[in-house]
Design brief:
CATH class of the largest domain: Alpha Beta
Largest sheet: 6 strands, mixed
Radius of gyration: 19 Å
Order of helices and strands: HEHEHEHEEEEEHEEHHHH
CATH architecture of the largest domain: 2-Layer Sandwich
Length: 230
């Protein structure tokens, strides 16, 4: 099995299915001429992530790539007040990976391959950037990106996941190993008027973790019970 995995990469460490070389994370690779992130990093981590998001979003827009901001930055763009502390997520189609990686690499960003096969990672201004090919266990599609809303991310307008798709992705992340309702509850409160909760229920297929969270929202009167119930 290991030999098969090794054969899927050439000597430059390319991702299977990609024609552009992407460096493995443990090589510590930086392209020639790339600026050191420490010199660009704002003192405030929240603002640092926003600055990195704006840089990457502007690059993707300039090259005409289809994408949508996801994760905590998308929540922020929709009016959330969470303090950004981790990374910036971008949904892109897997078939666009070559072109997206090329655009970022030409701009001097480090792009590398993590162990997971459903995303690539990049570094911008010292911040982690996730280029996601699958959301809520399903491939990123043109339809998903087409539902994105053009919103301002700290003064730069770019496509952001629609509220229903964003909430669906958060609920799909729940499992027996990760079930932090407390982190998602304030997001649900912020987005409750913008989310199609009936569609969320249908898409969840009564899975136990999303069902428990939706029940909590009903009991807290954040959302109404399903139609036809009291």
């Amino acid at each position: 099995m290991q030999q098969a995995d090794d054969a899927a990469r050439d000597e430059r460490g390319t991702v299977p299915g990609l024609h552009l070389a992407v460096r493995p994370a443990d090589e510590g690779y930086r392209p020639a001429g790339a600026e050191e992130p420490e010199t660009e990093l704002p003192h405030d981590r929240h603002q640092a992530i926003l600055e990195a998001t704006k840089q990457v979003g502007s690059l993707l827009k300039r090259h005409g790539h289809s994408f949508a901001v996801a994760g905590s930055v998308a929540v922020y763009a929709h009016g959330g007040t969470a303090n950004l502390q981790h990374d910036a997520d971008f949904c892109v189609r897997r078939e666009d990976a070559d072109a997206v990686v090329s655009a970022l690499s030409e701009a001097g960003l480090v792009v590398y391959e993590p162990p997971e096969d459903w995303l690539l990672k990049a570094k911008c201004l010292g911040q982690d950037i996730d280029l996601i090919f699958e959301l809520a266990h399903e491939p990123v599609t043109s339809e998903l990106l087409g539902r994105a809303e053009e919103l301002s991310v700290d003064s730069v307008r770019m496509p952001v996941l629609a509220p229903t798709d964003l909430m669906r992705s958060l609920l799909a992340s729940f499992s027996e190993h990760h079930c932090d309702f407390g982190a998602v509850l304030p997001i649900a409160r912020t987005l409750r008027e913008k989310v199609d909760w009936e569609r969320i229920r249908e898409d969840s297929h009564d899975a136990p973790m999303p069902a428990a969270f939706l029940y909590l929202l009903e009991r807290l009167q954040v959302i109404a019970p399903p139609r036809g119930t009291r």
